[in-house]
Amino acid sequence: MSVMKSAVRGGCLLGGIGFVGGYVGPMIFMPESNQGPLLGIFITGPLGFVAGLVIGAIVAWLRPPH
């Protein structure tokens, strides 16, 4: 698998996990907060995507070719 494909796959995976966690988590733990879902939309989702891109690229770069 190419480095680009692995990076995008990792970005989508971690970005999705970050988005769901940041969107649903505040609604569960602080239901009276009306701005809770904004955490997932603007902070944890994008940060998870960027972290996934970096981690996915590093993993693909370190993986031996087959």
Describe the structure.
With 66 residues, the chain is mostly helical. It is 79% helix and 0% strand. It has helices at 3-29, 38-62.
What's the layout of helices and strands?
Elements lengths: L2 H27 L8 H25 L4
Distance between the termini: 9 Å
Outline, from the CA principal axes? rod-shaped
How many DSSP H or I helices?
2
* Order of secondary-structure elements: HH
Question: Which consecutive residue ranges, at least 5 long each, have pLDDT under 50?
Answer: none
Measured on Cα atoms, how large is the radius of gyration? 15 Å
The proportion of residues forming helix, as a percent range, comes to over 70%
Mean pLDDT: 94
Reported for the largest beta sheet, the result is: none
E-strand count: 0
Number of domains: 1
Percent strand: under 5%
Derived structural class: mainly alpha
Short description:
It contains two helices and no strands. The protein has helices spanning 3-29, 38-62.
Which labels suit this protein?
66 residues, mainly alpha, 79% helix, rod-shaped
